[in-house]
Specification:
- This protein has a seven-stranded mixed β-sheet with strand order 4-3-12-13-14-11-15. Strands 1-5-2 form a three-stranded antiparallel β-sheet.
- Strand 12 and strand 13 form a beta hairpin.
- About 35% of the residues lie in helices and about 25% in strands.
- Helix 1 packs across helix 7.
- The model has no long low-confidence stretch (mean pLDDT about 90).
- The chain is of the alpha+beta class.
- The protein has a domain of about 130 residues: FAD/NAD(P)-binding domain.
- It contains ten helices and 19 strands.
Amino acid sequence: MGSGLILQPTGLAALSELGLIAQISSLGVRIDRLFGRVVPSNRVVLDVRYRALGPGWHAIGIHRSALFSVLHDAAVASGIEIIPSVTITGIDRRGGRAALTATGGRQFGGFDLVVDALGAHSPLAAGIARRTVLPYGALWANVPWPEHGPLIAGALEQRYRRASRMAGILPIGRRVSGESPLAAFFWSLKRDQVTSWQSNGLPAWKADVVQLWPELAPTLNAITDAEQLTFARYEHFTLRTPYSDRLVHVGDSARATSPQLGQGANMALLDATALARALDAGAEVQQCLRAYARMRYRHTRVFQWASAIFTPFYQSDSRTLPVVRDWLAAPLSRLPIADLLLARLVSGTITAPLANSKFTPLRMGSAED
């Protein structure tokens, strides 16, 4: 289930520590560039290249289910017990241990520590963060990658009309070995426009996409039913403290935002790495959780702040911000220092991913390699 995502050098380093890079690389696609044009002028307004960081730096586009399967297989191989078909509803921390409660009155426990990885709407994190509902979300679908088409290989490519229209396509490789390569297709859409999109029908929507990006017409032929498209809703929040008594939040349970900077899965992998290192220190549990929070504090705040600033330039009703993006920000981004800073921002390396802990984002070799 799910669509595609970008594994940045930070997330790849976390997977490398687990010994999973070979599997990930065999399923995913090397990404060297983020590229976008605004229509109708066809002006280039986004061109971030990982090579600005030096030879060999890149990301990997991958299907979510491929990443899940690789991690799931590793968990099973390690002997971790997995109990399926359970809907968690809360946590009971009486008696010095933690127990999880589930629908039907079931209870699991007691545990020294519960790691909450249930996502942005986790019942274990409900009510402990001030959330901002973002007006724009996105329709997405998986489509065959047009290997002989007009799209740029090894790139997340996008087209914009102001900030209210955006289409994007990302090569994501294969869900399983031997499958034909796929791409994740995205279409920006406001929450309050979903009902009208459904009522207008698929042909009208396809006409809108083709008007924005004519070269995508053959790719859209793979979408024959509106059920193939899923609408993703976004929120922005950061837990002030990502832990409490015998409970720690990681990934989207700890913070969530728009996917504009492509950091979500990578932040989750970094959280897991930081938590593992903190627990390996062998101190009392709450002391370990404080160390985990310190390791992730600065990196989390920088990227939550950056996402909040950048998102309205690409998804909003503003008429001013796209002009600033197209005629000021875009030319400045091509200057030598600015292209390095943008590459560091996109790659997740603009600040140390794990403060006070040795962690080196993964450089995986040059294109010639």
